[in-house]
Amino acid sequence: MIHLKNVSKIYHPNIAALRNASLHIRPGEFVSIVGHSGSGKTTLTKLLFAEEAPTRGEVLIGGWNISDIRPQEIPFLRRQIGVVFQDFKLLPRKTVFENVAFALEVVGAAHGRIHEVVPKVLEIVNLSGYARRFPSQLSGGEQQRAALARALAHRGNLDALNTHEIIELLKKINEFGTTIVLVTHNRDVVNRLCKRVITIDHGEIVSDVEEGKYRL
Q1: Angle at 24 between CA 182 and CA 28, to 5 degrees
Q2: DSSP bridge pairs for 57
């Protein structure tokens, strides 16, 4: 369950990245959050990942209130949330295996768990034979799939990736019962999904449509 209650995020000196945003995402739901560059999508993602705290309002994820979450609780929250950023953010000096493993290491996963999970997620994204390669040795699409594998390591929120192949992967993940929040400006991906679409514009939620389209 994800619930935002009248959430605003104000940056110094007086820049409102989000204004009085309210939404409710049910467990197991598939939701696309869309908007132009600078609309507030990245800020919303940071709030969901507890990288930022709201200036006003409440962000509730499962049993956590991001508004007053304690620092020692953040790793436990992040074990339930995976994020793929649009620029992939793969660590250039780590192999594909190490990039995916690092996402688990930072939240305290055991060594045995890491070596159990990483090969499985690399297989899901068809990168089993690329575990020892570095990001510079991958194509753009392969880097996207490596970033997706890293998010799948703890199953969660995904940013915009490719079209047909990634749509099918996202649907597969959702069928496992995982809540998907796709934060994107990729019109083609959103329109092919035909799922719920929440549109942000200038920091405000301007529409929330079941089985909607990206209309901005």
Answers
A1: 60
A2: none
> pTM of the prediction?
0.64
| Per-residue model confidence (pLDDT) at position 27 | 87
The two three-digit tokens of residue 90, written as one number: 């793969």
pLDDT for residue 121: 85
For 136, the token pair is: 């510079």
Domains and CATH numbers, the chain: 27-51+71-209 (3.40.50.300)
Kind of pairing between the strands at 30-34 and 196-201:
parallel
Question: DSSP label at 65?
Answer: E
| Helical (H) or strand (E) element with 172 | helix 164-175
134 neighbors 93 (Cβ within 8 angstroms): yes
What is residue 131's predicted lDDT score, i.e. its pLDDT?
A: 95
pLDDT tens across 153-172, in order? Answer: 765 533 434 456 667 777 77
Q: Would you say how long the chain is, in residues?
A: 216
The pLDDT score that the predictor gives to residue 154 is 63
**C-beta of residue 26 within 8 angstroms of C-beta of residue 81:** no
From first CA to last CA, the distance across the chain in angstroms is: 27
